[in-house]
Amino acid sequence: MKTSLKILAAVLMTALPATAQDVPGVTEDSIKIGVMGPFSGNASSYSKALVGMMAYYDKVNADGGVHGRKLVAIPEDTACDPSKGLAAAKKLIHQDEVFMLHGNSCSGVAVAVRPVVEEAGLPWLVAHAVSDSISVPLARNIFHGVPTGSANGRAMAQFVLSKPDTARVAIIEHSNDWAHSYSNPARDYLSENGVTPVVELTMERGQTDATAQVLKLREQKPDFIIAAIYEAETAIFLRDLKKYGMGDIPVMGTAGTDLENTLKRVGDFDTVKNYYVIHSYVDNLDGPKLEPVRQILAEYAPDEELSTFSFVSIGSAKALVAALEAAGPDLTRDKLIAAMEGIENFETGVLSEPITWSATDHQGVKGSAVAGFVDGKPAVLRAWNTPY
Amino acid sequence: MMPTQTQLLLRTLLFWAVPLLLLALPLVTNAYVQFIANSIVIFALVALGFNFVIGNLGQLAFANTALFGLGAYGSAILVNSFGLPWIVSIPLAGVAGAAGGFLASAAALRGIRLYYLAIITLAFGELMRWLYVHGKSVTGGTDGMGLPAQSLFGFSLTDDRAKFYIFLVVAVLLFKATLNILRSRVGRSVMAVRENEVATASLGIPTARIIVFAFMWSGFVVGCAGALFALHTSYVFPESFGMLHLIVSFAMVLVGGLGSVIGAVLGAAALTILPEYLRSFPGMEELFFGLIVIAVLLALPDGLASLLRKLSPIFVERYYRE
């Protein structure tokens, strides 16, 4: 009789909805979210992305939270070091017992952490690191909330081919994986559209002169140049391009360079007037469309000096809040994952492309806008001569 | 004060009792604490190997992190490209580390010492890191190299608790071997070179060979630690073998006690645990870490091991020199 009662009780328990006490990191009034990022070390400037994201949590909390629960961020430092990142992930999962993870700059750390998070099964929304291998192959609980390297690389080539009569495309890049993560998807897109690069050149990091590369480019007479090189080398390359009379050839750069910073480095507008960069946002950083986000940052992170990184993770935070709302008050990890997979064409008001996750594709942002100078002022473009 | 025979016996008992007690550690840890414990075991070996050259041999050589990387990459390559079981890769990674140690000692063989040797071995470390980054077809480049899930006699080695037992056995073997070497004729020669190389040579001891041996043994220990690290993180990246890690390893040796075997364990434990405690101060960790290390070195110039020596003579290492 006693055994029968126990079985009956067990059956009734499983039929009941999950309560906050059953779900790690969720209480009646809070949701614990682990935020990993490089808060120290050489790459600590990336942590601005996570500071911006946590400022958005504060805004959500000030507005009453999600289903009455506050978003409680638990930041953990990775120092952009895979070993330290693993320790941070294990601490958040097994000691702090957070409900989910959100954030992560530094692809190397994210790739190293992936097996641990995948095994633990808690939702992880990657909000800054771009490596495709973080979210492919598909893991049920891992989502990408920013454009990945391949999305950006393809966006670069797409913009290049949107210029009428572009047939001769040249590529110049560093010989490292960062550069390849942009140039290889760009090559794929060019190939799909029947374009073979007329010349592919390497410029090594730290190089202070690009004469040899520029002279080779002059022989090939490209219509457009794709440049997967860091900002310092970009400034040198653009300078030498102008020096040898090729300043009118447009150059498409990566998200690793900033348009106005490049202008500052070069110090001459004429040199950068035909330079374009990947720009993941709906507007210039000081543009009117980003004013609401700037206000949030000013209110909830008043001491923070804003940079491009400050905005990048807020888009995924908005999508997360939408998914948490959709998951309902009886929050579980499975419900959140299901709700995230239901997010479709979600306009964040920050990222230039909407977020769509599905059960078969967790890379949510499929492209980026481009920034370039139009009439002497920085502008966000959807395609050649097409404002965003 | 030197230990008595009874105290020596106690010391031997203690050497075996500590790892035996540590066998129970996985019963009381969660995955995070266990991960930190595993890190301590690995970095204790890194500090032990580093200490052998800078503390016992007395040479200012900084190839340690490069040798650690050789072991880690060696293990990952042997597993991924040659299909060897990870456990087999441990001694082979040690051999790779020893070969790196041989190369790093080439400068010392040419009579280069102190600051000049320091610069050359630093350059060796940077060269190795360059190879890790640019040897993409072999090392995976900046993307790094993953280590597939491993098992031993049918037991999975994906869990940190299971890894701990293997790490502990390897560490005990290497610590015991190092202590035996230090007590042997070769070990005494190593320390004689540190005291006075010319006087040592005048006794007919081949100092050049002794120096090469010390670098190679250091490389072997650190190379084995590299293989453990590859399994520990399941991923090997060039960033794990940079200048910052070299500085931390150096600090482990100094904080533990230069030339002290016990100090290698204490230094590794202190400087692995400390940053974890400092996690509560995001953005201030580096400042606090630096201040605490400076404070320890000012208060205890002979390292944490000197505290134990004051506590009891059983912790006095036979050939340790303050």
TrEMBL record, chain A:
<dbReference type="Pfam" id="PF13458">
    <property type="entry name" value="Peripla_BP_6"/>
</dbReference>
<protein>
    <submittedName>
        <fullName>Putative branched-chain amino acid-binding protein</fullName>
    </submittedName>
</protein>
<feature type="domain" description="Leucine-binding protein">
    <location>
        <begin position="30"/>
        <end position="374"/>
    </location>
</feature>
<comment type="similarity">
    <text>Belongs to the leucine-binding protein family.</text>
</comment>
<dbReference type="InterPro" id="IPR028081">
    <property type="entry name" value="Leu-bd"/>
</dbReference>
<feature type="signal peptide">
    <location>
        <begin position="1"/>
        <end position="20"/>
    </location>
</feature>
<keyword id="KW-0732">Signal</keyword>
<dbReference type="InterPro" id="IPR028082">
    <property type="entry name" value="Peripla_BP_I"/>
</dbReference>
TrEMBL record, chain B:
<dbReference type="Pfam" id="PF02653">
    <property type="entry name" value="BPD_transp_2"/>
</dbReference>
<dbReference type="GO" id="GO:0005886">
    <property type="term" value="C:plasma membrane"/>
</dbReference>
<protein>
    <submittedName>
        <fullName>High-affinity branched-chain amino acid ABC transporter, permease protein</fullName>
    </submittedName>
</protein>
<feature type="transmembrane region" description="Helical">
    <location>
        <begin position="86"/>
        <end position="107"/>
    </location>
</feature>
<feature type="transmembrane region" description="Helical">
    <location>
        <begin position="35"/>
        <end position="54"/>
    </location>
</feature>
<keyword id="KW-1003">Cell membrane</keyword>
<keyword id="KW-1133">Transmembrane helix</keyword>
<feature type="transmembrane region" description="Helical">
    <location>
        <begin position="243"/>
        <end position="275"/>
    </location>
</feature>
<feature type="transmembrane region" description="Helical">
    <location>
        <begin position="164"/>
        <end position="182"/>
    </location>
</feature>
<dbReference type="InterPro" id="IPR043428">
    <property type="entry name" value="LivM-like"/>
</dbReference>
<feature type="transmembrane region" description="Helical">
    <location>
        <begin position="114"/>
        <end position="132"/>
    </location>
</feature>
<keyword id="KW-0472">Membrane</keyword>
<dbReference type="GO" id="GO:0015658">
    <property type="term" value="F:branched-chain amino acid transmembrane transporter activity"/>
</dbReference>
<feature type="transmembrane region" description="Helical">
    <location>
        <begin position="287"/>
        <end position="308"/>
    </location>
</feature>
<feature type="transmembrane region" description="Helical">
    <location>
        <begin position="210"/>
        <end position="231"/>
    </location>
</feature>
<dbReference type="InterPro" id="IPR001851">
    <property type="entry name" value="ABC_transp_permease"/>
</dbReference>
<keyword id="KW-0812">Transmembrane</keyword>
<feature type="transmembrane region" description="Helical">
    <location>
        <begin position="12"/>
        <end position="29"/>
    </location>
</feature>
<feature type="transmembrane region" description="Helical">
    <location>
        <begin position="61"/>
        <end position="80"/>
    </location>
</feature>
